[in-house]
Each structure stands twice: as structure tokens, then as C-alpha cells.
Specification:
Length: about 525
């Protein structure tokens, strides 16, 4: 046990602010704009949602509308359920994680029925993986997350060469039918994810509300809805609970938001793996932290390439961004010029403004985890950050850290997951600053225009009512009464939205008095 130093009974004002996690003073930055109310952050030359490759269909919009009455029924064979349970439930053995087994999916949407035979299903997740069968049947006490794929043909080589998969192999007599299966979608989506309420969020809607905030404010983000879901084995009693349904971030998602010119770029899933954090370090290498995931061999890169897997072997765009981001010596003005040529700074600052208000300790800023990065195709690739896995937000699933995620400055220099110094240089250039001798970034010039826009975003999100108890309550209550959550609900290791936001606003006013927050 470490020796503890006794604190003096009388603390200076500086010491008091240090204890509360608030910055005492921000360094003077010569790059400060004349008018901080209109920060100089230009738009990128890529227009999102302008003439996209895939247009949103009426069915797609209906599916994701929270007002829609939705339900999902999943039925599979005993063999399929046992394969998932035996080979996909152990986090430490990923050999069979990628393989789907067949199931029948029936979706009821506003009283209209859609039935899909031979949909691929597999378990998904990281630490959430679990054995979901008890005495040979699904159990309400062993819920799991799943991915559903509507284009599986079950005739890949592995289905004949791997004995565990042979019971699910399919022989196609009709090539046209196989081709049609490969093109089959659910309302133009190849896949969806369904996740149970693992964090005991009684509102059922905190992540859904979070993703809506991102989308509503110009940040690329997937849709999210709720659906009463039945999962069972043919001939046995099924289980029934409300699942969260999430849009997958994949090539289809990209084509839904970019025109053909920009939609064929590189998409990376960025996570904290056994190879280390996704911290944009210039020391990351191909074949170690960067590459294409191979679950069969246990290779889990922090930057996992999801598109152009055969075409992109050099990861040039990713390394180029890392080189720009990790520049610690140029002036703020020089850095700003270089960054804006390769990175959508404006949407990133909005992403970070919203993420700060959400309080997810397991996100990009706080743990170098859980985000996607997309580089547009074309002559001048631009990188976009896409949020992912925000179920631990707004006081939900914080594992006892609710107060922890509300008691620090908006411009904090620490990664809140473990309290260490922020290691990602992008934050020292955009949001935080320190003159502390212990900081490896103490001499890095922050771009004041970026910090000012980040501040303005937070002010607007709060003062305009986008982040408010009334807006959250309205959103929760927009789902059908039969399965909506409780707007004022909390749950185990949770606080209610209202209590969380009250704490958050109070700390902003204490730590960031220059922020013009008009609500309480």
C-alpha cells in the first residue's frame, strides 16, 4: 500500500481548484481570434449527405422512427444455438467469431410483417460475450448481443472444411437465387446489431438519445431504436425482452452519406485491443496495431480496416493523418492549416462537445476507444470521426463512476477512464492546455479558434435546450408506450438523466466560468 501524504488544513485557492479537477488558468494563446463568437473553422470540401450513393427509402426511415411500432422474432435450430453458445461466448477465444449460423427473422413494423429465412446470426461484443443457454435453451439470465446479416449464403469454403460449421452448409442449385441472396437487405441495410440492456438503463434510451444528438448536429452516426424481441429455439419456449437495435457502421452506411466520388474510401474501426489503444500515435505499425482483423489467428488491431481490405495495404491516409496530428512543434496557425487539409475539424469539435456532455468514460477522448474513422475516396482524402458504442453515457453503465464523469472541466487534460494525462495530441491542439511541468504537451500551442468553437457548441447545446430534461423526456416518450423506458429512471450503477445533467452543468459553471451557460 502506498504511503499517503497528509494535506494541510488550509488550502490555497489554487489547491482547491486542483482538487476539484478544474484548471486554474489557461495559457495565453497568440492565435486567439478577434471575435471568439465566430471561430474561424472552415467547412471541408466534402459535402456529407449530398447526392449519396444510397438514398433513404420510406421503409428505412420508418424502421428507425421511434414512433414506429416494431417487434422482432428470431428462431433457430438447436444446433445453431449450441454453436453460438459454445464457440462465440468466450472473449478470449475468437476463432469462430466471424461465422454466422442460420435463423428465421420475422419483423413486425406498424402491423406489416416481413419474414426472412436463413438470416445469418452470430454473437457480438467484447467483454459482453457470454454463454446464453441454460439446460439447452435460451435464458433471460444469460442475454447476449447479436449481429444479424441478411446476405449470408452459408456456402463459403469454411462451411464444408470446418466440421463445426458443416451442419449449416448450403448447396445452391439456382445461381440466380444465390445472387439474389447476396443482394438481400433489410430496407437497404445488409446487417443490423441488436443489444440487450446490459447497463440496466431504465430509460432504455440513453445511447439512442446520444446518437440522435450526434446526427442532429452534423456528426456522422448510426441510427438506434427499440424493439420487443423474441429469441428462441424451434420447438422450445422462447425468451422475450426489449432489445436495442443499432445501425451498423459499414460500407453501406458510408454510401448512405457520401456521393460516389467520396464513398469508396477507407473505413477503420478504432478500439482499445490487446494491441493497445487507438490513440493515433505515430509509433503504431502495420501488422501490430494497424491492419485487418483476423479472428481465426487472434489478430485484433487497434485500427481495423473494414473496407478496401485487399486494395489498401500501406494505410497511407491513416499514417498521413497521424503525422499531421502528432506535430507538437509548429505554431497554432501552421498546425491549423495542415490539419484542415486532411481532417473534418468542424464535425470533430461538435462530436467532442456532445461527447463531453454525454460523459462516456470509454470513448475516444477518455480511453482511446470506440470510434470509427473514415477517409473519403478521391484526390484529397478527408478523415471523419464516427461515434460508436455510447451505451455508457449520461450516467448509465458507469460502474460507480457517475460522479467521476461529472466532476471535471470541459477542457480537462486527463483521460477520465484512468485519470492519466491525455496522450492524444489532437486534444492538446484543439481543447486542452497545460503549463504543468509534468505534462509532455506543456509547450504545444492550442488553436484557440478550435477551443472557442468547442466552447460555443457546448453553450448552444445546453442553452438551446438540445441537452435538457424536457428534450430527453420527450424522446423517451416518443417510443410506443408498450415498451418505452422510464424517462426519470436510473438503475443499478446509474443515475437519472436529470440528476446527471444537473451535476454536469454545475461542474461546468464551477470549472469553466467563461462558458456562458444560462441553464441550471
Amino acid at each position: 500500500m502506498k504511503n499517503k501524504k497528509l494535506l494541510p488544513l488550509f488550502l490555497t485557492p489554487v489547491a482547491l481548484l486542483m482538487l476539484t479537477g478544474c484548471p486554474w488558468m489557461q495559457p495565453i494563446n497568440p492565435d486567439k481570434p478577434d471575435n471568439p463568437d465566430t471561430p474561424d473553422v472552415p467547412d471541408v470540401p466534402v459535402i456529407v449527405d449530398d447526392n449519396p450513393v444510397i438514398e433513404d427509402s420510406e421503409e428505412y426511415n420508418t424502421f428507425w422512427n421511434p414512433n414506429t411500432e416494431l417487434s422482432i422474432n428470431i428462431e433457430m435450430s438447436q444446433a445453431a444455438a449450441e454453436f453460438i453458445d459454445r464457440y462465440q461466448s468466450d472473449h478470449d477465444n475468437s476463432t469462430y467469431f466471424d461465422y454466422y449460423v442460420p435463423c428465421t427473422v420475422t419483423i413486425e413494423m406498424n402491423s406489416q410483417t416481413y419474414t426472412f429465412e436463413e438470416v445469418g446470426i452470430r454473437q457480438k461484443g467484447n467483454m459482453s460475450r457470454t454463454s446464453m443457454l441454460y439446460e439447452g435453451n435460451f435464458s433471460m439470465y444469460r442475454l447476449a448481443h447479436y449481429k444479424l446479416s441478411f446476405k449470408e449464403t452459408f456456402d463459403d469454403e469454411e462451411y464444408t472444411t470446418i466440421s463445426q460449421l458443416q451442419p449449416f452448409a448450403k448447396t445452391w442449385e439456382d445461381s440466380a437465387a444465390r445472387k439474389a441472396r447476396k443482394k438481400r437487405t433489410l430496407f437497404d441495410m445488409e446487417k443490423i446489431d441488436i443489444k440487450w440492456n446490459r447497463n440496466d438503463d431504465l430509460s432504455k434510451s440513453k445511447q439512442s438519445f446520444a446518437l440522435k444528438q450526434f446526427r442532429d448536429h452534423g456528426v456522422l452516426a448510426g441510427h438506434d431504436t427499440l424493439a420487443p424481441t423474441t429469441i428462441g429455439i424451434t420447438g422450445k419456449d422462447p425468451i422475450y425482452t426489449t432489445y436495442e437495435v443499432l445501425e451498423c457502421i459499414d460500407s453501406v452506411f458510408i454510401k448512405r452519406h457520401f456521393s460516389e466520388e467520396f464513398a469508396d474510401g477507407d473505413l477503420y474501426k478504432c478500439t482499445y485491443t490487446d494491441r493497445g489503444p487507438a490513440n493515433m500515435s505515430k509509433n503504431l505499425t502495420i501488422g501490430n496495431q494497424i491492419g485487418v482483423e483476423d479472428n481465426k489467428t487472434g489478430f485484433h488491431p487497434s485500427y481495423d480496416l473494414k473496407t478496401n481490405k485487399k486494395k489498401n495495404t500501406t494505410h497511407t491516409n491513416l499514417f498521413n493523418l497521424f503525422n499531421v496530428v502528432n506535430d507538437k512543434t509548429s505554431t497554432a496557425a501552421e498546425f491549423k492549416t495542415k490539419l484542415e487539409k486532411v481532417f473534418d475539424v468542424k464535425s470533430f469539435l461538435m462530436y467532442e462537445s456532445i461527447a463531453f456532455l454525454l460523459g462516456n468514460f470509454d470513448d475516444m477522448r477518455n480511453n482511446a476507444n470506440n470510434y470509427y474513422m473514415y477517409f473519403t475516396s478521391g484526390e484529397n482524402p478527408i478523415a471523419f470521426v464516427i461515434p460508436y458504442d455510447f451505451d455508457r453515457c449520461l450516467g448509465a453503465g458507469c460502474e460507480g463512476k457517475q460522479e467521476y464523469m461529472t466532476n471535471f472541466s470541459a477542457e480537462s487534460t486527463k483521460m477520465q477512464c484512468n485519470g492519466s494525462w491525455q496522450v492524444m495530441n489532437i486534444y492538446w491542439r484543439t481543447i486542452c492546455a497545460s503549463s504543468d511541468a509534468n505534462s509532455q504537451h506543456k509547450n504545444v500551442e492550442r488553436v484557440e479558434a478550435y477551443r472557442a468553437l468547442y466552447q460555443k457548441n457546448i453553450e448552444d447545446l445546453l442553452n438551446n435546450g438540445d441537452f435538457s430534461n424536457s428534450s430527453f423526456t420527450s424522446y423517451v416518450n416518443s417510443f410506443p408506450l408498450a415498451y418505452r423506458g422510464e424517462a426519470d429512471g436510473s438503475g443499478t450503477d446509474n443515475v437519472s438523466f436529470n440528476e446527471y445533467l444537473t451535476r454536469k452543468i454545475s461542474k461546468i459553471k464551477e470549472c469553466n466560468p467563461s462558458y456562458d451557460i444560462k441553464v441550471s
